[in-house]
Design brief:
CATH class of the largest domain in chain A: Mainly Alpha
GO molecular function (chain A): ABC-type phosphonate transporter activity
Largest sheet of chain B: none
Structural class of chain B: mainly alpha
Radius of gyration of chain B: 26 Å
CATH class of chain B: Mainly Alpha
Subcellular location (chain A): Cell membrane
Number of helices of chain A: 11
CATH architecture of the largest domain in chain A: Orthogonal Bundle
CATH superfamily of the largest domain in chain A: MetI-like
Mean pLDDT of chain B: 86
CATH architecture of chain B: Orthogonal Bundle
Pfam family, one (chain A): BPD_transp_1
InterPro entries (chain A): MetI-like (IPR000515), MetI-like_sf (IPR035906), PhnE/PtxC (IPR005769)
Structural class of chain A: mainly alpha
Oligomer: heterodimer
Strand content of chain B: under 5%
Number of domains of chain B: 1
Protein name (chain A): Phosphonate ABC transporter, permease protein PhnE
Largest interface: A-B, 57 and 55 residues
Distance between the termini of chain B: 62 Å
Distance between the termini of chain A: 52 Å
Order of helices and strands of chain A: HHHHHHHHHHH
Largest sheet of chain A: none
Strand content of chain A: under 5%
CATH topology of the largest domain in chain A: MetI-like fold
Low-confidence stretches of chain A: none
Number of domains of chain A: 2
Chain lengths: 255, 275
């Protein structure tokens, strides 16, 4: 019986794959035909000579710094808002606030960064400010939830000991709970930062500044040489941040 | 006798570190033109205020709902077709890139010979390249190459996800117990047979659950890719935002949430049934 159901499931998966191709009316034969392959080939070839002139590299450096600043500030703002929302979401101030905070966090998290960015461009105008806000809003949802879970799982005894000795709740949190929690919070922030640098470099597609906007503009103007420089800069930035966060994880989180 | 001491021994270093971090952040704030104020001055006079106030009620007339259904189906189809194409590339690439099927490794305690390692590098490099460029950049490139519409989204998902799946599959093959496959290889079986009877039974559950998880991610990605013109729900959301049609945006965001929720449940069901 179980086997039959599994077979049916597999058949349903195969059927849905076939149905998807049929629904999209994808003509794979035409995509793979000699003519279109030749066109693709010449398109790719235009990317092979990136524009490395000094003036363009300067613009790229500015765009990269903008992207870096967007991702770092977005993550930092999100960490601040996240911890503020995580305290009620972990049930520190009673259940009505807990469910309200959780609902807010879920809502913030459910909407993708790019949709937030498109909305923020309307609210805050074109430019990196909109991108930073969009990253901060989405990441607040993610980090708030992760922080709340970390808060719930952290041992309560140190804070209780300080409370029993007569320390006030804020002191108990700062010296009893936070030291245990800090490495985990930092690890989550670094992980989100790695994600956000990738997102920050593409948020520009909807006009939110950084490298993405440069890529979008140069592709719209059919300047493939410039576009390929931007893509190279994006790759470099991602590798750099991955390395940096791996290093700081080794340095501060594992200790 | 214990003495009360209200001094925090770590206060100075912490204060200095905070000041240093702020000094580093200052140029960042300049660069990103950060201004939280714009969020709070969105009064009813403002374009944004009018846009958001149109969110309720969400658009629900007949013609729009039909459009919505079509866009949602297209999103699902893009994710499924993209995953199918990605698997076509990822499975062979992972078999080549993984050390688990190396003949020289079988007789050398799991470390392949120099030649084997050198030959695996190009495939690994290709997989790294495929997954390092974000899928939305691939989508933007393919929109220029094959035109607006779902074909660009399918190709973008296929490319990025084959890089991710290939890498993770190769690692899964390596992380399981190597002895059954090595025994088969040393007894003279072919590599594919050694894989099918030595490695696959151990890793099938993990492979499946990762693939289903990636399918779920592909749905979210295909929504996002619509913003650069790759079809599906995202393209409609982008259009409606540009037309300031708040009600349409609201109902499409609700549909998106529902879609993600359903995909989550479906993938849980599939994992539970098939593993």
């Amino acid at each position: 019986m179980r086997r039959l159901i599994n077979l049916l499931l597999l058949a349903a998966i195969a059927l849905s794959v076939v149905a998807s191709f049929a629904y999209l009316e994808l003509d794979l034969a035409e995509l793979g035909s000699a003519n279109s392959l030749k066109q693709m080939g010449s398109y790719v070839q235009r990317f092979l000579s990136p524009d490395l002139s000094a003036s363009y590299l300067k613009a790229i450096a500015h765009g990269s710094l903008e992207t870096l600043a967007m991702s770092a500030l977005g993550t930092l703002l999100a960490a601040l808002f996240g911890i503020v929302l995580a305290l009620p979401a972990a049930g520190r101030f009673g259940w009505p606030l807990q469910s309200a905070a959780r609902l807010l966090l879920n809502g913030l998290r459910a909407i993708p960064e790019l949709v937030w960015a498109a909305l923020m461009v309307l609210a805050a105008g074109l430019g990196p400010n909109a991108g930073t806000l969009a990253l901060a809003l989405h990441t607040t949802g993610v980090l708030g939830r992760l922080f709340a879970e970390a808060l719930e799982n952290t041992p309560p005894q140190p804070a209780e000991a300080i409370r029993l000795q007569g320390g006030n709740p804020i002191l108990a949190f700062c010296y009893g709970t936070l030291p245990n929690l800090a490495p985990q919070l930092l690890a989550y922030c670094l992980y989100r930062w790695e994600n956000n640098i990738r997102m920050a470099s593409v948020l520009g597609f909807v006009g939110a500044g950084g490298l993405g906007q440069m890529l979008y503009v140069s592709l719209s103007l059919f300047q493939e040489a410039q576009a390929s420089t931007v893509i190279l800069a994006m790759l470099l930035l991602v590798f750099l941040v991955d390395w940096l966060s791996a290093w700081s994880r080794q340095r501060w989180v594992k200790a | 006798m214990l003495k009360a001491d209200s001094r925090d021994p770590a206060a100075w270093p912490r204060l200095l570190l905070t000041l240093l971090a702020l000094a580093l952040l200052w140029p960042g704030i300049q660069l990103s033109e950060l201004d939280l104020g714009v969020l709070f001055q969105a009064d009813s006079q403002n374009e944004m205020g009018r846009f958001v106030s149109a969110f309720w009620p969400p658009a629900h007339d007949q013609a729009f709902l039909q459009l919505l259904l079509k866009a949602t189906l297209q999103t699902l189809a893009i994710a499924t077709a993209g995953m199918a194409l990605a698997l076509l590339l990822a499975v062979p690439a992972s078999l080549i890139a993984s050390r688990a099927l190396s003949l020289s490794a079988a007789s050398r305690g799991g470390v392949p010979g120099l030649l084997g390692r050198l030959l695996r590098w190009p495939v690994r490099g290709l997989l790294i390249f495929l997954r390092s460029v974000p899928e939305i950049v691939w989508a933007l490139l393919f929109v220029r190459a094959v035109g607006l519409g779902p074909a660009a989204g399918v190709l973008a998902i296929a490319i990025t996800y084959s890089g991710m799946l290939g890498k993770v599959y190769a690692e899964i093959f390596e992380s399981t117990d190597q002895r059954p496959a090595h025994a088969l290889l040393q007894a003279g079986s072919g590599r594919l047979a050694a894989f099918a009877y030595g490695t696959l039974p151990n890793v099938a559950a993990e492979l499946l659950s990762y693939t289903v998880y990636r399918w779920e991610c592909a749905i979210r990605a295909s929504v996002v890719m619509g913003f650069v013109g790759a079809g599906g729900l995202g393209q409609q959301i982008d259009l409606s935002i540009r037309m300031f049609a708040g009600g349409e945006v609201a109902s499409m965001l609700l549909t998106f949430l529902l879609l993600v929720l359903c995909a989550d449940q479906l993938s849980r069901l599939l994992r539970w049934r098939l593993t």
